[in-house]
TrEMBL record:
Residues 1-27 form the HTH CENPB-type domain. Keywords: DNA-binding. It comes from Araneus ventricosus. The keyword DNA-binding applies. It comes from the Eukaryota. InterPro entries: CenT-Element_Derived, DDE_SF_endonuclease_dom, HTH_CenpB_DNA-bd_dom. GO terms for cellular component: nucleus. The keyword DNA-binding applies. This is Tigger transposable element-derived protein 2. GO terms for molecular function: DNA binding.
């Protein structure tokens, strides 16, 4: 192909191309899980009842949540034709750690972050010197 002129794509070119050829974007998922909205609503109602019954203040109500910190993470989106219903996933990279944060509803007490791993020296820290603890601020 002897192209002598530069071609610049116009805004929306990819969107129009995908529409014309029946290509759409799918979220890659390894396992499908269904959310149970009714159970979630029941839990919220029970929690509100418990807070009122026990006369709990925001200082007494805590929430903890964890998140993964990944290296070499695989993208979660892909392009697929219109007849493809699902995009099969791949296993997550083992090069990860989990971080847990916790605090009360008033925001007056927040614990230090907890770093959670399955091994004494996670692969994610192979080039990091950690003498018994990981400095987290």
């Amino acid at each position: 192909m002897n192209l002598t002129t530069d071609y610049s794509y116009m805004t929306g070119w990819l969107t129009k191309f995908k529409k014309r050829h029946g290509i759409r974007q799918l979220k890659i998922c390894g396992d499908k899980a269904s959310a149970d909205a009714e159970t979630a609503e029941d839990f919220v109602n029970e929690f509100v009842r418990l807070v009122e019954t026990e006369k709990l203040s925001p200082e007494q109500i805590y929430n903890a949540d964890e998140t993964g910190l990944f290296w070499r993470y695989v993208p979660r989106l892909t392009l697929a034709t219109a007849d493809e219903k699902d995009a099969t996933g791949v296993k997550d990279s083992k090069e990860r750690i989990a971080i847990l944060g916790c605090g009360n509803a008033a925001g007056s007490h927040k614990t230090k972050l907890f770093v959670i791993g399955k091994s004494a020296k996670p692969r994610a820290f192979k080039n990091v010197s950690v003498s018994g603890h990981i400095p987290v601020k």
